[in-house]
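Sorry to interrupt, but I need a hand with the structure work. I would like you to pick a protein and set down its sequence and fold. Please put the record directly below this note.
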Amino acid sequence: MSKPDLRSRFLGAMVGSALGDAIGELAFSTPGRLLLEQLVEQALILRYTDDTAMAVGLAESILQNEGLDSGHLGDTFRRNYNREPWRGYASGPPTVFSLVARGDLSYEEAAASLFGGSGSFGNGAAMRIAPLGLFFHRSAELYEYSRRASVVTHTHPVGIDGAAVLARAVGLALATPLGRVLAAGPFVEELERFSRSKPMRTVLEALRRLLVSGAPAEEAAQALGRGVAVHESLPFALYAFLTRPDDFEECLFCAVLNGGDCDTLGAMACAVAGARCGLEAIPERWRLKLENHLRIEGLAAGLWEASRG
């Protein structure tokens, strides 16, 4: 197999994230690997959830604006939600969309009003961030772009930080050529330096210790968490990638088969794995079953083309 070029890695990140989401959704009801593999092989279509629907919206908005416009992004999310409200959205985004539709608040103001005025620190901003991490992977302003993309629905500093950290992880994965060993320790150290919230830095430090000790997946999942809070899910998604950086399938199954928020764990881990390994590393039999795969691949190719300018 030839080494993937940058275009292949853009496609790998978006297709990979969508497959992690879709297969992770199946893992909620089929937690054993053998049964999950059988279910995936038998499926005619691998349907994604809100994780991928919002990533698609983010890619659409970036391409339409040749950059990031938070208001346009919110409108795109709201339009796509109204078209497909059955994708499995948590309560936060629909509440934000409803508040904005009344005409009194911006998306950021509406999002800031959630959870008693603290905003959400869930993983919803991180689960969709891969297109931004791809498009802005060379930008010194990556954190600020991530913040602006996050506050449409997530205004808590930890929720923002988690999305920014994952965007940076996607960029780091793009920058490490296949054939060169990906050093997990320095990778996590860079994410720690990039992070701006104490909860995230603390758990990234715990991730680094677990990687050094060679902790098995079950131990890492228990220690790092697999919940909907971003600092209790993103680190284990990174563990799944960093312990299997050159094997897309093994990364996916590690991310989704250890309980918790399976679809989002899969989406986050496989965005980074796809950025590292490229489209060629993703089984074609899965890719061709992925719902709207041509649309997702087209958006990824568009981001690659636009980012070259």
